[in-house]
Design goal:
seven-stranded mixed β-sheet; binds phenylalanine; 512 residues; four-stranded antiparallel β-sheet; alpha+beta
């Protein structure tokens, strides 16, 4: 006797021998009242001694969807309508009258009912009575094939597609067309005995005293010596851990944070509910600038009026708009209205937050260089689609420094994108009302072989910095970049909405 099996495996083997036929692993596990994994590990042991094995089959399983289940419970719409007629002894009725009295949740369901009553040849319409009328054409209305098939789901909520008879297949197709049924693919394991397994006598198998764990009792009593230890198969992959982990967007934000911190930046945050003053006026955006319009900006009714900074500063901004103030500019040459600046809104860019930092710089008499960044939400009145959100995130930053130049700005931006994994970065001339010169930033995306627009940057105009006492040769480099754009490239998502809808499959795949 050279075949040894664990006690439980001998039991399972016995059952298989008795059955003398292939069987489904899931059924057998149920029958033996053991865990599926325990059963498969036993089959694995049988495989090792070449007594049994398993094969994998792909099967399709059918189950009713929510609507299908409700029809199973309450009857198909055609049956419901018929019952209304029968109950009230009506044999002829105007369709709209039936619609009124049927009180089905949706009129679409009503029309489905009518059309299927016709298909069942329960009712008819005739030119003679007017097309809007229906009348019953039968006296008896036995269960239809479809209803009989539907009922099968009363006993089993899952039915194997391959078990369907030809007749049932027709009914399945109807349910499928009516979108009441789901078909899902599954792999099913079939267990069978090998030739050797079929031939061998039970008396030829010896019980194997094998364990996978040694307990302290075994150690103290010494019985562990009587057992064979089950070897570990270290090549087998472990079970998939569906553990909680950080959202990919949180990971990306943390990565960006670390990059800026490693470059000597400090993080700042500002309010989401902002004043038009900080969002627009302080950025030298004229009060009739199109970006201020309702279709781009969410204005708020509550709170309605924003608090402005120190009078002096508001005056400095006002003068810059009207005549350039002390910035050396001529300004826009119109009458600046403080009430427009007091409007409240959801900030449309985090540049509002960096301007607040300029105000603080003035208040604190800070000494350059100052390097800050912010990664935060902004809001724009956009229609949602695969590349637009109404609520998104900007990676914003400024460097306040003496004699800093466009080269320094390009350096910071390139360094940032290189560190996050984009080697090729280009800057090209752009326009923003608050920077001069202005640059657009694009990165090269290998997979598409294209340059993709990532955001804007520039050196704040004197009209923006002078009201806060930041004057030549001190300048402010600034940028505002899209986070979601970056995330789409990094995580290879084609639809921007995926980042926030949280498709579970993607979240599971993404590493920690
Ligand atoms: N605020 C700009 C935007 O939202 C980006 C930007 C920031 C441009 C700073 C220049 C300087 O698109």
């Amino acid at each position: 006797m050279d075949i040894k099996l664990k006690k439980q495996n001998i039991e399972i083997f016995k059952v298989l021998k008795k059955k003398n036929a292939d069987c489904k692993a899931s059924d057998l596990a149920k029958e033996l009242n053991i865990d599926y994994i325990v059963l498969m590990s036993a089959i694995n042991d049988l495989m090792e001694v070449n007594l049994g094995s398993f094969k994998e089959d792909e099967i399709f399983q059918l189950s009713l969807n929510e609507e299908g289940l409700s029809y199973l419970k309450n009857g198909l719409p055609e049956r419901k309508l018929l019952n209304i007629l029968l109950k009230r002894n009506i044999r002829e009725i105007e369709i709209y009258e039936l619609l009124k009295s049927a009180k089905l949740q949706e009129s679409s369901i009503f029309y489905i009912g009518i059309s299927n009553m016709k298909k069942n040849r329960w009712i008819a319409q005739s030119k003679a009575t007017g097309e809007s009328k229906i009348f019953l054409v039968k006296d008896k209305f036995p269960e239809t094939e479809l209803e009989i098939f539907l009922k099968k789901f009363e006993k089993n909520d899952i039915i194997n597609y391959s078990d369907l008879s030809k007749k049932e297949l027709t009914q399945y197709n109807i349910l499928n067309k009516r979108k009441l049924i789901n078909k899902t693919k599954r792999t099913q394991r079939i267990i069978f005995l090998t030739e050797k397994g079929k031939a061998i006598k039970l008396s030829e198998i010896e019980e194997l005293k094998q364990i996978s764990k040694i307990t302290s009792e075994m150690l103290s009593s010494g019985t562990w010596k009587d057992y064979k230890l089950k070897p570990f198969d270290v090549t087998k992959p472990g079970p998939l851990l569906k553990a909680g982990k950080l959202h990919p967007m949180v990971n990306l934000i943390n990565e960006i944070r670390e990059i800026f911190i490693s470059l000597g930046f400090t993080e700042i945050r500002g309010p989401i509910v902002e004043s038009a003053f900080f969002n627009f006026d302080a950025l030298f955006q004229p009060q009739d600038h199109p970006a201020r319009e309702l279709h781009d900006t969410f204005y708020l009714n509550n709170p309605k009026i924003a608090k402005l900074p120190e009078k002096e500063r508001v005056k400095a901004v006002k003068e810059t708009h009207e005549n350039g103030g002390d910035s050396g500019s001529l300004g826009w040459g119109y009458k600046w209205d403080v009430n427009i600046a007091k409007k409240t809104l959801l900030r449309t860019h985090t540049t509002a937050t960096t301007i607040r930092r300029l105000a603080e710089y003035h208040r604190n008499n800070d000494i350059p260089p100052i390097k800050v960044f912010s990664i935060d939400r902004v809001f724009r009145n956009e229609k949602l689609d695969k590349s637009h959100l109404a609520e998104f995130t900007q990676i914003e930053g400024i460097v306040i420094g003496e004699r800093v130049t466009l080269c320094d700005l390009i350096g910071v931006i390139k360094e940032f994108y290189n560190k996050i994994g984009f080697e090729k970065v280009i800057t090209r001339p752009g326009f923003f009302p608050y920077t001069e010169p202005s640059m657009e930033i694009a990165v090269y995306y290998d997979k598409l072989g294209e340059w993709l627009e990532m955001g804007g940057s520039g050196i704040f105009r004197p009209e923006v910095t002078y009201p806060w006492g930041i004057k030549n040769p001190t300048r402010v480099l600034a940028w505002g970049l899209g986070l979601e754009r970056l995330a789409m490239l990094k995580y290879e998502r084609e639809d921007i909405r995926d980042l926030y809808i949280n498709p579970i499959k993607w979240l599971r795949q993404e590493s920690y």
